[in-house]
């Protein structure tokens, strides 16, 4: 697919902070963004040249949107596959509807990953209580029950310590299609972010070690402190996944690292990722800019890291500390312009950058 | 003046690339921008939450604008002083109308600078041909004739090598109020960018050495290669000017450096400046972000330089090289989203960043 020039109009499905940071990166390159988002408060719209507020199922609005832009991408992996499939024949669209479909269903995702000879947690699809009982017997305890679809930030997940708590958790999600995953005794959680162009060229960022609390990312640390072999395995896994999906754009693979240094794929996020926010302040090209470059068909930029970083999310009322954070030496403050400081809501992040040691 | 929080709405007078980069920096901090600009194509509007297209003399539009924002700043020093004076009692406004007035008139500016015991070129105001003849006699040849007002990028300037060419140049500007400046035999042109808060706190960026062609900035290089004494004198001059103006925001002082290392003030730009674009990619806080912080009453951020840089402007058709520039190792490409590639028009810039040597 040939390159679109700097005057290109880039459509973004989704109006959250990831779309906002994609739009800011696109603006640096002279690219005009048009955000399509159903939600009322959409931080991305504040920095975009145009905005459409409509449901993802509104085909008239989608058709108009496709005419007004030169390419469309997503900031949110749960854009309905039907929306992607509707837009794909009408405009340059990346990542593909097929790639989204794989990432949206935890069973399809894990089966796909295993098919590439990459490890995941052991798992079983759960549609009925009988499935659940069989799966609990096979996978053992503890285990994790998750909805197959639409989970994020730990939502729709429960740790199962007994058959009874398994039944309660399945009831709590309304017996929606689910997946039971064996508990992985990991020593670290990590993620690797890669970017792949239409021509198959790809680049990777340094691996981040991630700390979660209550299912929400709190902190990403780079360098990760993991061994070179483990990091190389992580990168190789992400490249294999991106290639197999024919992925175009930035893609993130979340990983479990075991005590033996084994790398298990936990989740594929077919998009820019919270654990890559450090790349704005400490990589030669950010994950957002490389995503825009990939979608538009530009050469990908260097992912070289320019410092050692700790990125911390500002959740809910933590953002009220903006003044102290703005004054802190070496801290780069980012706020997303959200008005409501709900508990656990991602309001911004802070990246602390120190000179690179390794 | 107390701080405005991250939800603040910042008004920007002027819609060019400087306003665009101010808006992008403000967005990082969660601040929503409203651009007020008369011009048809306004690159800043593409990244702002709101825009008003009206002349600077439209008091109804200005009054509405003042009600819709929490603070107003400028990206363009030739915003009429009357506009600033109209807004100043209606909203938090920085820099002040008084500071703009000084910077808009080359005679007032030089007199002000000399009054601070800082050197400028020798100069004389020219209102009539008789003034011009007297000034040419007193200042000698060569000399530079400039309009007192509204000059930028070398426009409204002529180098005078004889009385005849002086008369021709004065006729060419329609005998508008002018200034004759003695030619300064400089060995380098430099600029120093400082930022000053409402509380008088100030920070300075490393001095840039600037190369011009045809009156337009081509390249800024940091570190400047000037002596430590010269750089210290430059910084001290800028702080003295900012303090004397009671300046709030980012202010730039353009300088001539003589063979003896003397520092002469050439021009005050009461705003962020082209020679500070490198700060986006190679300072801990950019000139744009510090400007926003100052206007809103936030603590100023560290100006520490993180690399050695060369910033080159992309003028007119040079921007057509975007693809090669995007692929160049170590180059950070910025494009302003302007549609018309007119000769000499600033379409973007490229910052090449290398590890810091000094």
Summarize the structure.
Chain A is α+β, with helices and mostly antiparallel strands. The first copy, chain A, has helices at residues 17-28, 59-68, 81-87, 97-104, 106-115, 129-139, 163-172, 228-245, 279-282, 287-296, 322-327, and strands spanning 9-13, 32-37, 50-53, 71-74, 92-93, 123-126, 143-147, 157-160, 178-182, 186-196, 202-204, 208-213, 216-222, 249-258, 263-269, 308-315, 331-335, 346-354. In chain A, helix 3 runs antiparallel to helix 4 (97-104) and helix 4 packs across helix 5.
Offer a few descriptive terms.
homodimer; 358 residues; alpha+beta; Dna Ligase, domain 1; D-amino Acid Aminotransferase, Chain A, domain 1; 11 helices; globular
Commentary on this structure:
Two copies of one chain form a homodimer. Helices cover 30% and strands 29% of the residues of chain A. In chain A, helix 1 (17-28) links the parallel strand 1 and strand 2. Chain A is α+β, with helices and mostly antiparallel strands. The model of chain A has no long low-confidence stretch (mean pLDDT 95). Chain A folds into three domains: 9-93, Rossmann fold (3-Layer(aba) Sandwich), CATH 3.40.50.20; 122-182, ATP-grasp fold, A domain (Dna Ligase, domain 1, 2-Layer Sandwich); 186-354, D-amino Acid Aminotransferase, Chain A, domain 1. In chain A, the strands form three sheets. In chain A, strands 10, 11, 12, 13, 14, 15, 16, 17 and 18 form a nine-stranded antiparallel β-sheet that branches. Chain A has a five-stranded parallel β-sheet with strand order 3-2-1-4-5, with helices on both faces. The radius of gyration of chain A is 20 Å and the shape is globular. The longest helix of chain A is centred in the middle third of the chain and has 18 residues, at 228-245. At the A-B interface, helix 1, helix 11 and strand 17 of A face helix 1, helix 11 and strand 17 of B.
């Amino acid at each position: 697919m040939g390159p679109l020039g700097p005057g290109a109009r880039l459509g973004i499905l989704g109006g959250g902070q990831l779309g906002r940071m994609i739009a800011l990166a696109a603006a640096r390159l002279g690219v005009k963004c048009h955000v399509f988002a159903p939600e009322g408060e959409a931080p991305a719209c504040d920095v975009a040249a145009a905005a459409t507020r409509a449901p993802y199922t509104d085909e008239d609005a989608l058709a108009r949107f496709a005419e007004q832009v030169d390419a469309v991408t997503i900031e949110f992996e749960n854009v309905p596959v039907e929306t992607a499939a509707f837009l794909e024949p009408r405009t340059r669209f990346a990542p593909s509807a097929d790639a989204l479909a794989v990432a949206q269903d935890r069973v399809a995702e894990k089966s796909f990953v295993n098919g590439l000879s990459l490890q995941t947690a052991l798992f079983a699809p759960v549609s009925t209580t009988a499935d659940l009982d069989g799966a609990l017997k096979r996978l053992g305890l503890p285990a994790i029950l998750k909805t197959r679809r639409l989970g994020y930030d730990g939502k729709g997940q429960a740790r199962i310590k007994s058959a009874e708590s398994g039944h309660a958790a399945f009831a709590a999600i309304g017996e929606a299609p689910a997946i039971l995953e064996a508990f992985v005794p990991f020593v670290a959680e990590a993620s690797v972010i890669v970017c792949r162009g239409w021509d198959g060229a790809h680049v990777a960022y340094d691996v981040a070690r991630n700390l979660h609390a209550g299912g929400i990312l709190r902190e990403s640390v780079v360098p990760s402190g993991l061994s070179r072999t483990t990091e190389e395995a992580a990168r190789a896994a992400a490249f294999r996944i991106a290639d197999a999906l024919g992925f175009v754009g930035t893609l993130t693979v979340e990983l479990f690292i075991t005590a033996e240094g084994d790398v298990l794929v936990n989740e594929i996020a077919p998009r820019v990722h919270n654990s890559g926010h450090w790349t704005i302040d400490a990589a030669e090209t950010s994950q957002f800019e490389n995503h825009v470059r990939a979608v538009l068909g530009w050469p990908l930029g260097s992912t070289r890291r320019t410092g050692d970083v700790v990125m911390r999310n500002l959740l809910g009322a933590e953002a009220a500390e903006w003044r102290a954070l703005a004054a802190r030496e070496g801290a780069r403050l980012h706020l997303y312009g959200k008005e409501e400081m709900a508990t656990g809501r991602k309001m911004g992040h802070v990246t602390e950058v120190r000179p690179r040691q390794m």
